[in-house]
Amino acid sequence: MTLSDPPREPTRTDRLLAALGGLISGYVSLAVAELVAAAVRPEAGPVTAVGGVVIDRTPAAIKNWAIRTFGESDKVVLQLGILAVLAILAAAVGLLALRHRRAGAGAVMAFGVLGALAAVSRPDSSSAADALPSPAGAAVGALLLYVLIGRLLAPERSSPAGRLLAPERSSPPGRTGAPGRRNFLLVAASTAVAATGAATLGRALGGTRSQGAVASRDALRLPRPASPAPAVPPGAQLPVPGISPFITPNKDFYRVDTALVVPKIDADGWRLRIHGPGVTRELTLTLADLTRREVIERDITLACVSNEVGGPYVGNARWLGVRLADLLREAGVRPPSAGGRADQLVARSVDGMTIGTPVEEVMDGRDALLAFGMNGTPLPFDHGFPVRMLVPGLYGYVSACKWIEEIEVTTFDAYDAYWVPRGWAREAPVKTQSRIDTPRPLARPKAGTLAVAGVAWAQHRGIERVEVRVDEGAWQDAELGAEDSRDTWRQWVYRWQATPGRHTLTVRATDGTGAVQTERRADTMPDGASGWHTVVVTVE
Known about the structure:
- The chain is an alpha+beta fold and about 550 residues long.
- The protein is about 35% helix and about 20% strand.
- The strands form four sheets. A five-stranded mixed β-sheet has the order 2-1-10-5-6.
- A hairpin with a 4-residue loop joins strand 5 and strand 6 (about 355-360).
């Protein structure tokens, strides 16, 4: 285009191709960034880093809505949402570049800077190298966008002979012609293919980085417990189709956390540090140190505070590990009731999550564990390999730190763990709850004897009674499955003589202290949901 070319308005095709150029430049930026992140640290990639910031800044009400709506797919939805927003922004940047090439390229670089800031601001960031992936990808994407728009705006040039032979077909000065668009599409297609290769290579490198963690888990041989869990008593698993299994298989155990990328930690290099003002002797332990100690095995039900009444975020597993209280005593920790000055354990995960747990509950005799085994296998990566913490009777967000690497013994006044500034309670004992597993809501069973069944839990207090009500009738006692321990849920069944029509089934439980599950409805925030679970069915 020459200085004498008159200005013109971009055509519709120009705008569509410019938007496409922005999308391809954004795709290339992400692919290159993820490739660099595979060499630096996968969690430093732009989507993961920005996603972590979004999770941290999202109001609790929206998080709860996402968990209710999308369940354990909430992280996938978040990542797809981030990619959708980036796609819209990339197309807009492409349109900007159509008018101002340098401004468009500068906008791409600005996104790279934001990605870098997000990466280094994450709690798990420990190196300035985390800032590299996003700017590296942005630089390549900015250069590509500048080149693509240059190709698109290149004027059509025809030979002098062509102009003499067919002057009526020559393009007006400065008009974008087919050769420019062909060059644009050629460059765009080739770079997209190259970016796909870079992304594939990045995934392969990321897989290579995790091979040591996978190998260390495969090589781990769980020790025989000095204190094995008693066999699950006969009758704990009721023979009722549709009821939750007494022991939840690992693959079905719920997962609720903030990790967009599941940490994969090489067990051979893992260390746990116990320190803080409440400690008189700091400890640093390896996994081998833990497995050589007195190992215990216990059945414990774990529940998430985000679980709605009747919700799925509760499960029961057989855990293998060491007593956390023993380690704390070795470090010189005393509970407040024994004159100790520290009342909070701040557990830190490798992904930067912090979870605050009352010292008193950990050291009151309950089987609070640092667990490395789950249902007879090493912990799955999703559930905290190599070591996680869990405390019976407390919701997971104040007790069940996964991928744990540090315990600071301090006070609640000195430090607020991750969830507390976001509106959740500092201390959260599990509330007495019960759930109807079968029949399912809106089921249409046949008239006659119908098994109404489910589970009830009140960890560390146990379940003494479950009652079922049909419509507004009298409460009727359900048959209870055998009790394993007061730290596990308990199955129940009520044999109902179902009559035709629409009916509402309601369940409530009584815990081991004699307290009856409250009817009062409460949201999950700040310390767990309450209320009676109801199911509406139509008997035919």
